[in-house]
Amino acid sequence: MSPATFNILLGRIKHRIEKFSIRKPVNPECRLFLTLMYLAHGSSIFQMSRLFRLGVTTVRKITQEVTAVLWDELKEEYMPEVEEQKWAQYSSEFEDRWNFPHCCAAVDGKHVTITCPPNSGSLFYNYKKQYSVVLMAMCDVNYNFIAVDIGAYGGNADGSVFANSAFGFRLLHGGLGLPQPDALPNGEVIPYFIVGDAAFPLKANLMRPYPGRNLEPLKENFNFRLSRARRTIENAFGILVARWRILLAPLHLHPKAAENIVKSTVVLHNFIKRYEGQQYASPSFVDHVDQNGEIIAPGEWRSQADPLGGINADCIQRGNNASRNAIHVRDVLAQYLHDHQIR
């Protein structure tokens, strides 16, 4: 982050983190800088206290306060409610870059590892034998996060993580504000939708790949094309953990404090990309894929950070009894993509 961008960020939150006391308080510049270093380098609270010559309790309190303020002050501008016109813009960008019409965003879920909270039993204990909170997110074609839902129990195995997330519930119930169904160039009318991997349910407004192997060419081509579009969310998560390395190690925090850490990194991701996109995530930092969705040049983030742990299918949505309409929409789209393959 450049000094100019730091000053813009400081100007946005200074009134919320400035303290007044009889004793000289830690100034806002130091509070913000300490928190950004803590998030970016993943150092422990003990290490930060020695580096800044502050008490461990003071550093812990500063980081928890500033991360909460960052989310509160930045979310309205850098992760606003998406309206229909904006969804249409996202769809146009996905079609231009990935040749996948009517796709508005990509969705995925990840585990953010934490230490075992007191008296939590197995609530946060996931199938990877770790304790975690769940981060569900959608992103646009430029790897900006559109919406996030954080804090579900990592051990949730009732298939409700996605359905009970704020945007998941609205998507499944038609309340996300996606554009009205429109015709493809061949005249077939289909809805606008979000793309996810095989763990997500098939809905008219949520596309997932065809299951199975050795598929016929039409279905195989659809899966390749969907994979290229869906890879945007994988790269968005990759950039996030490579730049904010606090997420790479278990968070030794109460779940609520861990939630504030995650939310602040997500909104900072969007903030810095707006002002320093080339420095924060250059074109070489993300995967380059061929027309079949295969990686031909791995993004630099893969050499700098391990991906966050994925969420198993049962944790996202138990069962996948797709409606006839959803199956029809996928078949129509698959036929269109097969007839208009990239040459």
H/E element sequence: HHHHHEEEHHEEEEHHEEHEHH
Quickly give the structural class: alpha+beta
- Give the overall shape, derived from the CA principal axes: elongated
Helix content: 40-55%
Q: The biggest beta sheet, please?
A: 6 strands, mixed
How many strand units? 10
Instruction: Indicate the proportion of strand residues.
Output: 5-15%
Whole-number mean pLDDT: 84
Uncertain runs are none
Distance between the termini: 41 Å
Count, helices: 12
CA radius of gyration: 21 Å
Question: Can you tell me about this structure?
Answer:
The protein is an alpha+beta fold. It is built from twelve helices and ten strands. The strands form three sheets. Strands 1, 2, 3, 6, 7 and 10 form a six-stranded mixed sheet that branches. The longest helix is centred in the last third of the chain and has 27 residues, at 217-243. The chain is elongated. The two termini are 41 Å apart. The mean pLDDT is 84.
Defining key terms:
single chain, 343 residues, alpha+beta, 6-stranded mixed β-sheet, two-stranded antiparallel ribbon, 48% helix, elongated
